[in-house]
Amino acid sequence: MPMRIVGVLSLAMAVQTVGIAQEPPMAPLRPDQTTFLALYKELVETNTTLSAGSCTLAAEHIAAHLKAAGFQDKDITLFSVPDHPREGGVVAVLGGTSKSAKPMLLLGHLDVVEAKREDWARDPFTLIEENGYFYGRGVADMKAMDATWVDMLIRFKKSGYHPKRTIKLALTCGEETTNAFNGAQWLAKNKPDLIAAAFALNEGGGGRTDGHGKLVVQSIQVGEKAAQNYRLETVNAGGHSSIPIRANAIYELADALTKVRDHEFPVKMSDTTRAFFAKAGASRGDELGRAMVALSQNPGDKAAEAIVSKDRSYHSMLRTTCVATLLEGGHANNALPQRAAANVNCRIFPGETVEGTQAALVAAIGDTDVKVTPVPPIRPVAVPPPLDPNIIGPAEALVAKYFPGVPLVPSMSTGATDGIFLEAIGIPVYGAPGGWGDPDGNGVHGLNERRSVQSVYIGRDFLTDLVKLYADAG
Question: CA 172, CA 150: separation in Å to the nearest integer?
Fold first, then answer.
């Protein structure tokens, strides 16, 4: 999972003046929280890395818990494919009472980023509670939410709760690795009826603290960019390095990359980013804030764009971006290079296509000797979900109840989640608020990943209430 709430961190710094109390100390765990903790611990301690772990094993454990709670075999679907037996997932269904209300879907990925014990201060696959934080690979990305979804369905089933709207759960593998088997993509292509829903809740939303224990903002993710890699390649005959020529594959590639660096994609606005810049800008009261509001009103305001684009996060929210990330070239230290290549990673603004972005790169480079090719897998076009008041309204009301004085802002991720595969088949996906992190990113994808203990437990209660609001409104 790449960084999700880009731009919200800047907003968090802008609204630190809001009077918000420090987080209160945790009370002794309730029995239901103790049960949840055991499930959370089991998920974190089940290694689900691509190299050595098994999402299939985690999915099987989840299915067993659901069956023990009263779910029948017909309500649970375990899936995998022969070529990727350890990369399976699970879908579960809690039936609703309404025949007219469309289901809602709870989405999550079970896989985690690689973690080496020798690099970590603690065993990455042991859940450790220390100084107000849980530590371990996946505690934040995203096994706290996975455990919350599973625990929620278990409690709903055991309590006899009957939602109006059917609640579906899909936990899949492959989100964290580009070339892995992606369970969400597979479900969207092969089992669309199984996950069909009016909307889905996913990772990508949530709050941020000021780094000192104060929650300053909550966000709901409404839309994301599409990640797509392109290979830039130059080829020529090479020769002896003692007789250099200008037609050098490395030089040609370097010239092309310089043009990619200097190319600025045009400003784009979605309903989400327009609302974000208007709301975030109005909270600031400085030059940047005024420029953000002006740009939300007129995306063609070049003076406002120049000011807003000085912030890296906001610059990325305003347009497609492409950046060189990998480089290769040459075959011997005493020979002219016969081939040079680079990977350019693009984050494509919602509504823009892979082909259109490729054409923009070709035009910016302006050299027919530089081959630009999309690198599989080819992502679908990012489809921005609507700012649906039936989704945003209940979330705003619940944020006001749980976190008085903390604003809820819509955000567009400049990264990418598995939501893009569901949106491609007509299921709007929203990154739910509730839990929170710190400005330093909490070690997600890095060393010593951590998640605030209070964030886990309070976020669990928040999400339970939020799901009930949506399910009972069906």
Answer: 13
Residues 367-386: tens digit of each pLDDT: 999 999 999 999 899 999 99
**Helix 31-44 vs helix 143-159: crossing angle, to nearest 10:** 140
Task: Note every long-range contact of 251-256, with CB atoms under 8 Å and residues 24 or more positions apart, other chains counting.
Answer: 252/340, 252/367, 252/369, 252/370, 253/329, 253/340, 253/341, 253/342, 253/370, 255/367, 256/232, 256/365, 256/367, 256/370
Q: What CATH topology corresponds to 226-259+320-379? A: Alpha-Beta Plaits (3.30.70)
- Round to whole Å and give the CA distance between 454 and 27: 10
Structural domain boundaries in the chain: 8-225+382-472, 226-259+320-379, 266-318
Residue 15 — pLDDT band, cuts 50, 70, 90?
very low
Task: Report the pLDDT averaged over residues 98-125.
Answer: 97
Taking alpha carbons only, the member of 106, 104, 133 closest to residue 121 is: 133
- Fold of domain 8-225+382-472: Aminopeptidase (3.40.630)
